[in-house]
Design goal:
Layout: H1 2-79
Length: 80
Amino acid sequence: MQRGEELDQFRVLEEKVDSLIQMVTDAKRDRESMLEKLHIQEEKIADLTSEVEALRGIRDKAKQRILSLLEKMEQLDLKA
């Protein structure tokens, strides 16, 4: 009877080890998936940051043109 109990204990231990191995494997797969998603999001952030900087440049140029036009309009008022 004692030998049968030892075999049962080894079987339980083996099942627990197999379960732990599966959990670690799943965790590694989840980690890799999350790292890939993070990489994609970082690329999107970089693209959006570049776009924002480009739009700021366009806005600054438009602002300068508007100021230049306002100065020209003021000069017209002074001459009249």
